[in-house]
Protein 1
Amino acid sequence: MTDAFDRASSLETTDRERALNNHLSRIKERAEHPGFCNDCGNDIPERRLAANPDAVTCLTCQYIREKRGKRGLGSR
């Protein structure tokens, strides 16, 4: 029972650390060309920029990033 608890606790800690690191990576990312997606280069819709002025990706690329759990193709 203790081994199962330790394993579950370790997995939860790892997941939290991964989520925090992904979040911190996105915070540090700057727009290469404001108003354009850092990943695909397409325009970021005005509604998205109005809702999130610091957005560096279009909705499609942001969705892909979240699914992959990575910073994306244009990351450094």
Protein 2
Amino acid sequence: MTLNSVCSTTGKVTEYGDPPTQGAYYVLNVTVEVSRGDTSASPSDFYIQTPDGTRYDGSYDNVEPRLSASTVKAGQKVRGNVVIDAPPGHGLLHWEPLFAVSPATFQL
């Protein structure tokens, strides 16, 4: 998994959406590429964990290009945005697909 970019906002991320309830929306552009086997690439596979240990899960907010819920097989890759409503500040981004042996973690 590659974290291509991160941006955050305290405003709405979609025209008809609501402001974030936790303080900020993080829009994460990610690429999931599989070299062998297969894995899931869904917004629900991503979460931000704050320093106090609280977990904030990825949502299905439609910020194009949105990461679609899918299975990615060997030789394939998908790229898209994941939106997470979390408190502003530092935290860890985790990608933990179902049956992950080695989840990815990034410092935000």
